[in-house]
Design goal:
The chain has helices at 3-17, 25-29; strands at 44-47, 50-51, 57-61, 67-80, 83-92, 95-100, 114-116, 119-120, 126-129. It has 169 residues and is mainly beta. It has one domain. The strands form 2 sheets. Strands 2, 3, 4, 5, 6 and 7 form a 6-stranded antiparallel beta sheet that branches. It has a 3-stranded antiparallel beta sheet with strand order 1-9-8, with no helix packed on it. It is globular, with a radius of gyration of 16 Å.
Length: 169
């Protein structure tokens, strides 16, 4: 079993059995596991993030109509199947945060987008592993308050990695 498969199995177990799961008790009863894209090594990237000269605080709207505050940290470029793409990386009190919606949003992936917590590497680059892209908890249960990716993080390319749409909502 790969590290990613082990991670996904642990997440499925958390969703099915943990009282802190975002699933309602009714959803947990029939839960058979989350749906994922196959692991895609081409979407595990080490990127240079160009920090913004002014790292301003921005308020992003959330799924419940409120706002959450983040710092716009920097931007990075990458390719998906030969197509160029760029995303903005945000900083939150708990670390770096990447929220994005790709061209599959609303069809194969959650319509409001997916999330990642990129890791800053010792050499200053960032590990952006789209295989770990996950749905915000509001994809499973409307009681959760989730920030919505800004326009600058809406991609015209498909990211066929990470979690797919959840059927049980």
């Amino acid at each position: 079993m790969t590290a990613l498969e082990t991670f996904r199995q642990g997440k499925d177990d958390f969703f099915a059995n943990d009282p802190n799961s975002p699933l309602t008790p009714e959803q947990r009863e029939g839960f058979q596991g989350l749906s994922y894209f196959p692991e895609n090594p081409d979407l595990r990237l080490q990127v240079d993030v160009r920090p913004f000269s002014e790292q301003e605080e921005v308020q992003l709207p959330t799924s419940t109509g409120s706002v959450k505050t983040y710092t716009r940290y920097g931007r990075f470029a990458f390719e998906v199947d030969g197509q160029p793409a760029e995303l903005t990386l945000f900083q939150a009190p708990y670390g770096f945060f990447l929220l994005f919606a790709d061209s599959l949003a609303g069809n194969e992936t959650y319509g409001a987008g997916r999330y990642l917590e990129p890791e800053q590497l010792p050499d200053g680059k960032f590990l952006i592993d789209f295989n770990l892209a996950y749905n915000p908890y509001c994809a499973y249960n409307d009681a959760w308050n989730c920030p919505i990716p800004p326009a600058e993080n809406r991609l015209s390319v498909p990211i066929r990695a990470g979690e797919k749409n959840f059927d049980g909502h």
